[in-house]
Amino acid sequence: MKGFIEEFKKFIMRGNVLDMAVGVIVGGAFTAIVTSLNTDILTPLLAILGGTDFSHLTLKLGTGETAPVLMYGNFLTAVINFLVTAFAIFCLVKLINTVGEKFAKKEEEAPAEPTTKECPFCKSEIAIEATRCPHCTSHIE
Containing domain of residue 32, as a range? Predict the structure, then answer.
């Protein structure tokens, strides 16, 4: 049992688990901001343009007070909310990637190791590992 607890502590203290937890918390806060943007700003603007406030769109299924009501306006608001959130995250990730690429140090490629050398006797190009020149048959150190 003690080994299980130690293994769990090791797992929970790994960087990626903590990063994920921070991401979920920040994502929740970001979602609240985007929901407010959609509900308080975009939906009224769309209502001016289209003449309809999505949050009040409903469809009553049946008659009477107990008839179920589809709140499809709320669904449309949720879809718009998702699209705005996805677009905002896309723009944020694109910005971060662009800034990261500008500031990333470009590693200089190391020059390739030579694969040939020159025979000191006949000046022919030979393989780097050669101990005898295939042209003049001289021994090469």
Answer: 2-103
